[in-house]
Amino acid sequence: MRIVALAGGIGGARFLRGLRQVEPGAEVTAVVNTGDDITLHGLRVCPDLDTVMYTLGGGISAERGWGREDETFVVKEELAAYGVGPAWFGLGDRDLATHLVRTQMLDAGYPLSQVTTALCDRWQPGVRLLPMTDDRVETHVVADVPARDGRPAGRQALHFQEWWIRYGAKLPAERIVGVEAEKSTPAPGVLEAIAEADVVLLPPSNPVVSIGTILAIPGIREALRSARAPVVGVSPIIGGAPVRGMADACLAAVGVEVSAEAVGRHYGARRGPDGTGSEAADGLLDAWLVDCRDEGATVPGVEVVSRDLLMPDLPSAAALAGAALEVARALR
Ligand code: FO1
What we know:
The protein is of the alpha/beta class.
């Protein structure tokens, strides 16, 4: 069975680990968000690709959900001793090696997709990791920013990481933009994987800055809408709150209520109420998994199924992935 999953950071990675566990024979392709990527100290950091790679490869910090297990931050301390920041970004020593190898290969002219394949040779994640694009598309957030580091206060575009980490997504986001997404193209293999998939899954990643950013790459949304495979999504919102992270701050920026039902409607139905691909429906979903606490949620044109969506451990992630596949099979 060929499965394609669009994935962001921690939630997406945990879901993928469950998927690999529950369907070991499946050929899984993860199309991963790269809008969070940032260049620091001349090095290219790809948080979502690394979070998925480390989580599936067994190197993730279980306690943080990002970065490496057994990590140290000596280089970061030494940089601080030179007065070189950003102090707010947790640059780990083991993680640094990944950024050094990635940057070396990018500088040698390899596209990010080939760099990712090379890094995965070491980590053996057991799924194919594809960046959403090989082009540089960074998520920036327009907000009223307080004065800092000698820069005056005012409305500015912050890199997503600064908004997310330094300000904890607490600055109301006026706009969240994938810079130059409109000029980018999907990475090699992305559109083919979606077209050939037997099942397409939208894991419980951030619907705006992870899934939304992937969908902003020209061609990907269209590929999902015309895929022969059923498209099944999993709500990242349970009982009116995000399970982790700060998706609520992102949803506010795009005017979507923080509820499983609202996010399902935000993704929309792929087929009209009459079950055809009528123009009345311009969305992505055939089915939408919501938590038992959100039972009764409705998304016109979409089959809503309530399951336990929490993934505190691998068995629960496997059970959730299995439930999503079961719903997909019933739709095929
Ligand atoms: N998240 C934080 O909250 N604080 C950090 O210092 C931090 C550092 C970091 C370093 C490497 C990496 O791959 C991820 C890191 N993250 C950190 C997580 C990251 O900001 C988010 O996971 C994604 O960008 C959003 O999914």
